[in-house]
């Protein structure tokens, strides 16, 4: 990866795209620290046990707890994109647009933008109500509470739409997927801030003549994080290669075919989406009721936190089952064995030892199910087990909330995709130079 970066900066066109990407990312981080008028920084504690607030705080790079302009960041756009993927399967009109190429893609993007605006408004209202309930709105005799709340909500919606615009500009003018890079930068900055704060605390303890136990805790924590990173990279790069053999065909005086290739099927093809969906469904009731009530004995929120709160056995079981469900759901959307088998047969290909047509489709479906099962098991393991280990071995909640397994999975996926994008950009420039 480092060699790819060095080669990229040597190429003028690729270097220009990288600088544009860095400039837009800097603009995003600036908005993540720009405070909204009327908000007291630190009014919302994202480490209160709510998974969605925890994930949202990590993705925004601490902007949520700071009451910043881009406090809700890319979450409305992500949710809108996921909803559009589901609607594309359910609504024939959207599926027709998907098959129309660039023109249909632009129509879907326009609907996604409008849906992002609606979700941004709903999320901004919810967060503003939360801040208001916690006394975080600086309203006084001059400005009433409802006016300050309206200004804050409008700023949050504007920040969400600006974040979407920055992500689209990175995708169009820069390198890689813009929205993914914004998430990447937010998670990295959150982890960096937490790590620096922890090191500063250790240094202050050392100057006061304290023990060295926090140092060994930090070293052990970082070693465990590196081990999880290595495991995630290994699984993310794993794939099953199904061999395809093309029969020889003679057309005129030339012979075609006779080649052997393969179909790569990734072990974790759905990425981190099943974890996000599962966490959102389980955490949504708690997030919704936290806007209107406090957890007191006898009410619904108290019962939910006790039995389905983060870390409880029932929570882990429900999240694991939902991860399996969404992993298989996305596998059916992304990989269609019947269509792949039909394409192979039309091009004169076959899988060695498998008859073309329906037997090939059944063979591919069987492989896809097995890989999806192991991929779903990996996602459930990453979503549940590391968090339990961290909470059992370490006591720093800020460091644990910054280095979530879900965040690490996102970072690895985006970093590998960015490296592939740079390599493809360099390869295109080399081909253009050869043609000239």
Structural class: mainly alpha
Percentage of residues assigned to helices: over 70%
Count of beta strands:
5
Counting H and I runs of at least 4 residues, what is the number of helices?
A: 17
Mean pLDDT: 79
SSE topology string: HHHHHHHHHHEEEEHHHHEHHH
How far apart are the termini?
28 Å
The strand line-up of the biggest sheet is 4-1-5
Q: Report the sheet-strand fraction.
A: 5-15%
Largest sheet: 3 strands, antiparallel
Radius of gyration: 25 Å
Shape: globular
As an assembly, this protein is single chain
Unreliable segments of 5+ consecutive residues = 47-51
Please give a structural write-up.
The protein has 436 residues and is mostly helical. 72% of the residues lie in helices and 5% in strands. The protein is built from 17 helices and five strands. Strands 4-1-5 form a three-stranded antiparallel beta sheet. A two-stranded antiparallel sheet has the order 2-3. The radius of gyration is 25 Å and the shape is globular. About 1% of the residues have low confidence.
How is this fold's topology laid out?
Blueprint: H1 2-10, H2 12-33, H3 51-59, H4 63-66, H5 75-90, H6 92-98, H7 102-133, H8 145-173, H9 178-207, H10 213-236, E1 239-246, E2 249-251, E3 254-256, E4 260-266, H11 273-289, H12 300-308, H13 313-334, H14 337-346, E5 349-350, H15 358-393, H16 397-402, H17 405-435
Antiparallel strand pairs: 1-4, 1-5, 2-3
Helix pairs in contact: 1-17, 2-8, 2-9, 5-6, 5-7, 6-7, 7-8, 8-9, 9-17, 10-17, 11-12, 11-13, 13-15, 14-15
């Amino acid at each position: 990866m480092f060699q790819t970066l060095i080669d990229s900066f040597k190429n003028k066109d690729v270097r220009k795209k990288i600088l544009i990407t860095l400039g837009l990312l800097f603009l995003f981080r600036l908005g993540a620290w720009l405070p909204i008028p009327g908000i007291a920084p630190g009014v919302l504690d994202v480490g209160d046990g709510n998974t969605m607030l925890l994930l949202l705080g990590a993705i925004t790079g601490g902007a949520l707890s700071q009451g910043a302009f881009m406090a809700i960041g890319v979450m409305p756009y992500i949710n809108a994109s996921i909803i559009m993927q589901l609607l594309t399967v359910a609504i024939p009109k959207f599926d027709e647009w998907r098959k129309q190429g660039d023109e249909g893609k632009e129509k879907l993007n326009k609907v996604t933008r409008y849906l992002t605006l609606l979700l941004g408004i709903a999320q901004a209202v919810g967060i503003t109500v939360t801040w208001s309930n916690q006394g975080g709105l600086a309203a006084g005799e001059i400005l009433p509470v409802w006016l300050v709340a309206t200004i804050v909500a409008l700023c949050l919606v504007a920040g969400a739409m600006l974040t979407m615009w920055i992500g689209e500009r990175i995708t169009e003018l820069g390198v890689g997927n813009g929205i993914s890079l914004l998430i990447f930068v937010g998670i990295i900055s959150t982890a960096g801030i937490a790590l620096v704060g922890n090191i500063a605390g250790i240094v202050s303890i050392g100057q006061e003549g304290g023990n060295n136990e926090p140092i060994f805790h930090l070293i052990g924590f970082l070693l465990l994080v590196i081990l999880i990173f290595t495991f995630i990279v290994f699984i993310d790069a794993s794939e099953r290669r199904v061999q395809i053999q093309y029969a020889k065909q003679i057309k005129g005086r030339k012979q075609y075919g006779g080649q052997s290739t393969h179909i790569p099927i990734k072990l974790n093809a759905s990425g981190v989406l099943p974890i996000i969906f599962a966490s959102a469904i389980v955490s949504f009731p708690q997030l919704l009721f936290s806007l209107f009530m406090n957890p007191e004995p006898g009410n619904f929120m108290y019962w939910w936190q006790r039995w389905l709160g983060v870390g409880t056995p029932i929570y882990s079981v429900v999240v694991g089952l939902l991860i399996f469900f969404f992993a298989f759901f996305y596998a059916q959307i992304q990989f269609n064995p019947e269509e792949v088998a039909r394409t192979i047969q039309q091009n004169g290909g076959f899988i060695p030892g498998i008859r073309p047509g329906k037997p090939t489709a059944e063979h591919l479906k069987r492989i896809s199910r097995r890989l999806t099962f192991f991929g779903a098991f990996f996602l459930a393991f990453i979503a549940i087990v590391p968090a339990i280990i961290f909470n059992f071995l370490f006591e720093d909640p800020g460091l644990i909330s910054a280095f979530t397994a879900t965040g690490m999975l996102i970072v690895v996926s985006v970093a590998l995709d960015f490296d592939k994008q740079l390599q493809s950009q360099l390869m295109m420039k080399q081909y253009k130079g050869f043609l000239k």
